[in-house]
Design goal:
Blueprint (H helix, E strand, L loop, with lengths): L1 H18 L11 H16 L4 H36 L2 H7 L5 H4 L2 H47 L1
Length: 154
Amino acid sequence: MFKSGLIGAGIGFVYVMSLALLSPLCTLCLVPFLGLGVGFMASWFDKPERLEANLGRGVVAGGITGLGVTIGQILATIVTGILVTNLEELPAGFEQLAVFEPVLVDPAQYWQTTLAVGAFCSIFNLALIVGLGALGSLLWFQQYKKNTLNTVSA
């Protein structure tokens, strides 16, 4: 479970760091696949015999992966805030869009909005990865038990 959690944390960290620089909402695309994959991989590595142990491994692997994703999201949010507030042309380009006008008038408001959206997406990603990690491990367990029951009865 630790091996799959660390693999997922590394993949999630790189993925989130690259996409969260554009928008924190872009990170919500791969998170379901990452959670399911990490939970499935945790059960595949450990091959637990009981359902409770299997779900626990999926939750722990999802938690480790979610922690890596959250750290990546936090760092990307800080880097985005620093880049946008320190570049003179970038806020002027955004001010032409009427959607961002109330946010970019004051750099303090921009920071508050950036950090709030980043924090929301981080917490949502963490909860989603943990839950889907358990679901991925459950899917593996059902598939493994199905194969075991078929070979025993044959």
